[in-house]
Amino acid sequence: MLAINNTLVSEDIIERKFICDLNACKGECCVAGESGAPLEKKEIKELNDAYPFVKPYMTPEGIKSVEKYGVFVIDSDGDDTTPLVDGKHCAFVYFENTIAKCSIEKAWKEKKVTFQKPISCHLYPIRITNKNNYDSVTYERWNVCKPACKCGEQLNVPVYKFVKTALVRKYGKRWFKKLEIAAEYLEKKKK
Predict the structure, then answer these.
(1) How far apart are CA 151 and CA 125, in angstroms?
(2) 95: helix, coil or strand?
(3) For the whole model, what pTM was predicted?
(4) Per-residue confidence of the chain (191 residues) as pLDDT tens digits?
């Protein structure tokens, strides 16, 4: 683990390779699982504010779920997450040619909202857990992402570079620069 400011970063995010391959996985990370996307407290207000502008991009089933439960629910672990549709996919998912995509991000891309999507989604496959005022920044391995790992290996793109924009959004440019320096150091150390 690397210590950068108030984070403990797994070396896996430097060593492992990853690039999403939506044509192969079909956006399964938005569909599979027992809970919706984890939300930070401040994101709940942002999502509430964005919802009227995101709603036109959602499926009728997703709208029904949000209208019933709100933009967040508390899952079995006690975490704030986006609601699901019938216990399956995230309420904010829509499908384009059988690929699951995010209605929040679509509204953001079309400049309808300033909230891009939950940071947990933007960071994926990185997961963050807070422990004793430190964020633990780790790489989450999931079977549905095997094509992404293969694509990342072929193009030699480490996880942290794949999610650079999200890491900068979460921790800032200076933090990311420190991560790059640590990655360069570890790479030289291997040789």
Answers:
(1) 14
(2) strand
(3) 0.89
(4) 888 999 999 999 999 999 998 888 888 888 887 888 999 999 999 999 999 999 999 999 999 999 999 999 998 888 899 999 988 889 999 999 999 999 999 999 999 999 999 999 999 999 998 888 899 999 988 888 888 999 999 999 999 999 999 999 999 999 999 999 999 988 887 76
